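TL;DR need structure tokens for one chain.
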Amino acid sequence: MKQDIHGHVVLNILIDSKEPLPRAQLEEKIESEFGSEVCFHTCSQQDLTLAELLDFLLSKKKIVATEEGLTANPERMCDH
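>> reply
TL;DR here they are.
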């Protein structure tokens, strides 16, 4: 059974990094921490790949892409 990780975990990694992370570096960090056999979910989405999760979080402006990389937008995060 695949490990199922909430998108907040990814958002918290970005918050903890203190600096924007290039997408490839974030993907490598997540894979090294959780492995490649994981899926992700959010409050409204289920069974997402990491790429799908990042695209979803970008579309909801919960993550913002800058020239330096991806950064979390805490103002758009839900409080649970």
